[in-house]
């Protein structure tokens, strides 16, 4: 519980610093492509969290989006997986709809998850086995839904890819409606709260889903890759998350019929961080 309270505190503090500086000039750089952005706020937030964690728990290890933990290849000990700003495009263009996301694992087992909707001061948090919360309100167990009566979220980008469109287009067509939030961590939080019934995307890194994974599973969400396999917290993964019924429907009726193609994609693209 000590680690949990410490994490909660430093995430809140980081969020306050971001809110206080939201109108300051932002330095923007690109990473893998012109739409893959990183700002000075991303880097400063991760560095601040890294220093706070290490000064309090020097033996803990940290895997962060902006460069910390690139040598981590196992889950021994206490591992923090940190995204200082999940939804950087939203942060740059909207100054909202982004989150600080942290998942903590002990010897590979889930311990605690945090997704902090910074501008709305909403902290989604969970300790494995003890339920999930939004600030001081416990989240309710998820209710089962069918695709045809559900809101789902996904990245519209996947509908533009010829192979993946064969999978994604029928899902979007059959769902009640589709949303795109631009922050994977908040997509997980929305499923956990019941705002959406499912979230599917073709590629997320560990820092994108580590915090949300723990929160969502605490309210009964099923979280796997698109082959129905457990997520690897040290590698990129495809994602399929939803309440139990819609997850089974999506997996069996929409994804597994394309198992061979998906296996090839996973083999080619999802090895390494």
TrEMBL record:
Known cofactor(s): Mg(2+)
Pfam families: Inositol_P (PF00459)
Keyword NAD assigned: no
E.C. designation(s): 3.1.3.25
Enzyme class: hydrolase
Keywords from the UniProt entry: Hydrolase, Magnesium, Metal-binding
Pathway: Polyol metabolism; myo-inositol biosynthesis; myo-inositol from D-glucose 6-phosphate: step 2/2
Superkingdom of origin: Bacteria
Keyword Metal-binding applies: yes
Catalytic activity: a myo-inositol phosphate + H2O = myo-inositol + phosphate
Protein name per the record: inositol-phosphate phosphatase
């Amino acid at each position: 519980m000590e680690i949990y309270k410490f994490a909660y505190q430093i995430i809140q503090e980081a969020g306050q610093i971001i809110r206080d500086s939201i109108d300051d000039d932002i330095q923007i750089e690109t990473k893998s492509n012109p739409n893959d952005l990183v700002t000075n706020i991303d880097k400063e937030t991760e560095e601040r969290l890294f220093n706070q964690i290490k000064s309090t728990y020097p033996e803990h290890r940290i895997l962060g989006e902006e460069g910390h933990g690139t040598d981590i290849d196992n889950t021994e000990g206490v591992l923090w997986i940190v995204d200082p700003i999940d939804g950087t495009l939203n942060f740059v263009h909207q100054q909202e709809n982004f989150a600080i996301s942290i998942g903590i694992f002990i010897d590979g087992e889930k311990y605690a998850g945090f997704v902090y909707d910074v501008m709305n001061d909403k902290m989604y948090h969970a300790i494995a086995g003890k339920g999930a919360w939004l600030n001081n309100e416990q989240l309710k167990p998820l209710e089962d839904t069918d695709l045809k009566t559900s809101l789902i979220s996904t990245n519209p980008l996947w509908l533009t890819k010829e192979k993946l469109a064969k999978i994604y287009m029928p899902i979007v067509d059959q769902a009640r409606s589709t949303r795109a939030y631009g922050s994977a961590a908040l997509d997980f939080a929305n499923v956990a709260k019941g705002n959406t019934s499912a979230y599917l995307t073709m590629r997320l890194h560990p820092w994108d889903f580590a915090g949300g994974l723990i929160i969502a599973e605490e309210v009964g969400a099923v979280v796997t890759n698109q082959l129905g396999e457990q997520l690897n917290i040290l590698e990129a993964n495809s994602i399929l998350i939803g309440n139990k019924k819609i997850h089974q429907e999506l997996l069996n009726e929409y994804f597994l019929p394309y198992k061979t193609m998906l296996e090839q994609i996973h083999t080619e693209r999802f090895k390494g961080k």
